[in-house]
């Protein structure tokens, strides 16, 4: 009897590890009156709001590893999406393995892929009883915040996640996770990722942790960025 039980367990384990799950998210940039009324950035912000509609992302995950990536890179039907993609902070794929997030830096202040930024997954969530349905799944609201430190100072931005205990994985869009269920909707300041397609038990696709770049913590990377910004002005 013990041998039979062990065989069933091994068959189930091998089956569950031979498949991925995939969630596709759309992306929205919400209206921000202060930015829209700004003479300098207003026009650009409107363009990014419009082009965000042409962006989709997908989260591929299983067990202890996940990959979040943009599925549309440059232009689509003449729509330039680069600005919206930069606002999403997900131009580069994000890998989550166990309790760490891995992401290469984008082009800009430093050479592209010069650094491999590693930071712990967010776990300081405030759980609430507020709920709503997303694609017929009951989801619960959780909140946290993310902090940006640059040459202009320290900025704290709110984050709202709607997670689904019925899908028992601790992942979500943009590297967020650590909740008792999959995040199907995430709002980070004015950016919103929303699940539009859920595929459980999808074909296996290899997920690899990035190897390019100098491994560096998120705080170390921010310090380098601040130092470089101050040296230029």
From TrEMBL:
Domain of life where this protein originates: Bacteria
Pfam families: Porph_ging
Official protein name in the record: GLPGLI family protein
Source species taxonomy: Bacteria, Pseudomonadati, Bacteroidota, Flavobacteriia, Flavobacteriales
């Amino acid at each position: 009897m013990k041998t039979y039980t062990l065989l069933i367990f091994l068959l189930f384990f091998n089956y569950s590890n031979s498949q991925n799950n995939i969630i596709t998210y759309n992306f929205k940039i919400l209206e921000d009156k202060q930015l829209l009324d700004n003479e300098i950035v207003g026009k650009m912000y409107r363009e990014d709001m419009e082009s965000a509609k042409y962006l989709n992302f997908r989260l591929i995950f299983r067990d202890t590893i996940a990959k979040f990536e943009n599925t549309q890179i440059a232009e689509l039907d003449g729509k330039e999406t680069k600005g919206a993609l930069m606002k999403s902070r997900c131009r580069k794929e994000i890998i989550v393995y166990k309790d760490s997030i891995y992401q290469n830096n984008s082009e800009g202040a430093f050479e592209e892929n010069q650094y491999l930024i590693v930071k712990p997954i967010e776990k300081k969530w405030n759980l609430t009883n507020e709920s709503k349905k997303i694609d017929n799944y009951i989801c619960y609201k959780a909140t946290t915040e993310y902090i940006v430190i640059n040459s202009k100072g320290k900025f704290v931005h709110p984050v709202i996640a709607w997670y689904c205990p019925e899908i028992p994985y601790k992942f979500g869009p943009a590297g967020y996770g650590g909740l008792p269920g999959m995040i199907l909707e995430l709002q980070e300041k004015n950016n919103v990722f929303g699940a539009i397609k859920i595929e459980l038990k999808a074909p296996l696709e290899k997920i690899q942790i990035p190897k390019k770049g100098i491994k560096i913590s998120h705080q170390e990377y921010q310090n380098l960025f601040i130092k470089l910004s101050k040296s230029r002005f």
